[in-house]
Amino acid sequence: MFWFRKSKPARQGDVKGIVNLTSGYNVRELGGYDTPYGRTHNHRYLRSGGILGLSRQDAEYLRTSYGVRRVLDLRGELEVGGGDGILPTLPGVEYKNVQLYDFDLSDPKLDRPDNAGGYLASNYFTMLANRDAICKIFDYFATAPADCCVLFHCAAGMDRTGVTAMLLLGLCDVARDVVIADYAYSFGYLGEVNAAIFAGAGDARHKVRQDLADRITAISTVYDRLIDTYGSVRNYLTDAGVSKAQLEAARRHLLG
C-alpha cells in the first residue's frame, strides 16, 4: 500500500518533461521540479530508455540543440555488447558504462526479508547495494562541465534509470511524492499518475491500474526505507562512499 498527501502534481498540462524525438523512447527531463532552493534546471540531466535505435537526426539534435555531451549507460555486460548507437560516437560526446544491476548482492540495512514492495523493490535494493557503481555514477555526474547535459539510460529507462533519477532528485530535496511520480510517469499517462499520487483520498485512489499501483508501491517502499534507514538520500550516498564535494557538484549541476 502506498500513501500520499494531497499536493500539487509534479507535471501538469503541457509541461510533461518529455523530449519529443521520432526515434527516442522515454526521454524525459529532470528539470522543472520544485525544490526548497528553486526549480531544477532543464538541459542538465535527461533520463532515457535505450538509445541504440536513435536516428542520426535525433542524435544530432540531442548533441547540438539539447547540449548532451555525456552519455551514461547503466546496462549490463550482455546488453552493452550490442553497442549504444550513434549518439556516443558524435564529436564532443563522452560515453561511460556503469553496470548498475549486473550481479546479485544486497544491503542488509535496506533489503529485509519482509517482502515489502515485492520483487521490484528487492531488485531496487540490490541496485542500491551496488555501492561501487553508485560512486562511479555520481563521480561522472559531478565532473560534468557546467554547460553539459548528461543523458543516462538503461534498456527501457524505467528501473535502473528510475532508481538513478530517484537518487538525483532526492539529493536535491525534491518532495517525496514528486520523486515517486517521476518514476511512475514511465508506467502511466500523466493524468492517471497524477490522480494516483496527488489526488488525495477518494475514488481516484481505488481506480489505479494494478500494474501501476504495484510500481508505485515498489518505489515508495524503496524510497521510504532508504529515508528511514539513512535519514536522507545525501546520507545514503555519503555512506556509499560518494564524497561531499561530488554530491555538491552533482546537486549544483541540476539546481544551477
Q: What would you say this structure looks like, in words?
A:
This protein has 256 residues and is an alpha/beta fold. It has a single domain (28-255), classed as Protein tyrosine phosphatase superfamily (Protein-Tyrosine Phosphatase, Chain A). The chain has 11 helices and 7 strands. Strand 5, helix 2 (77-80) and strand 6 form a beta-alpha-beta unit. Helix 3 packs parallel to helix 9 and helix 4 packs across helix 11 (244-255). The mean pLDDT is 89.
Topology record:
Elements: E1 28-29, E2 34-35, E3 38-39, E4 45-48, H1 56-64, E5 68-73, H2 77-80, E6 94-97, H3 118-129, H4 131-142, E7 149-153, H5 160-171, H6 176-184, H7 190-198, H8 203-206, H9 210-230, H10 233-240, H11 244-255
Parallel strand pairs: 4-7, 5-6, 5-7
Antiparallel strand pairs: 1-4, 2-3
Helix pairs in contact: 3-9, 4-11, 5-6, 6-7, 6-9, 9-10
